Amino acid sequence: MGIIENGTISGNLPSKEAFVVHYPGYPSSISRAVETLGGIQGITTARESTSNKLELHFRPEDPSAHPAYGERRHCNGFLLKISKEDVKKDSLPESQPVISTSDACLPEVRPALCADIVARVSESYCFDGMVDYQHVIPIHADIAQQKKRKWMEVKSLAGKNDLMDMADEDVMMLLPQFFSPKDRPDNLVLRLPVTSSPKKKDEELTQNLYEVKTRNETI
């Protein structure tokens, strides 16, 4: 482990390789982040796939949540393990004799940042697209049951009236597969409708009347 001096470190390059995921959010824990990426099995499958895509489900327990896709890109970086250590430095040179054991003669301790090169980073997954988050359905059955039980208690006390039945409020889940067919915005150029001239309209009307007259004579 080398000391970081002037923003640089020195050390041996390891043979171990790794990849990095630029997570577009602030997960509550590392385990939660891995779960949203499909778990270890899902990440392994994405690494072996030829699509070069890594799916990110912000709500894995919600089957209606549209995933975000991370694109695999090549990069050239290093994975560093940074720590803070106390480095001792003698305040007096070795040639100078020590006369007393005062604080000036004791070795000086100063904090220093140290870094260790853990692995080389050759690939990264970047999430540059948009994410559908407009609707969240009640997916937790226990919470839904608690809401229903509370409402049934209120309903038994209130009796039959014009209040809306809230017990079935989470039954309708008519959601599309995803809200947007694309995860990147596109620039659309709308073409103006083709306007026909009055002369052309008269010719089309005359032709239609001629066709109708000919058809009647044939009949």
From TrEMBL:
Q: Which residues form the Transcription factor IIIC subunit Tfc1/Sfc1 triple barrel domain?
A: 20-135
Task: Please give the biological process terms from Gene Ontology that the record holds.
Answer: transcription initiation at RNA polymerase III promoter
- Output the InterPro entries linked to this UniProt entry: TF_IIIC_Tfc1/Sfc1 (IPR040454), Tfc1/Sfc1_N (IPR041499), TFIIIC_tauA_Sfc1 (IPR042536)
- What Pfam families does the entry give? Tau95_N (PF17682)
Q: Name one GO cellular component term.
A: transcription factor TFIIIC complex
Q: Which PANTHER family match?
A: GENERAL TRANSCRIPTION FACTOR 3C POLYPEPTIDE 5, GENERAL TRANSCRIPTION FACTOR IIIC, POLYPEPTIDE 5
Name listed for the protein in its UniProt record: Transcription factor IIIC subunit Tfc1/Sfc1 triple barrel domain-containing protein
Q: Which organism is it from?
A: Arabidopsis thaliana
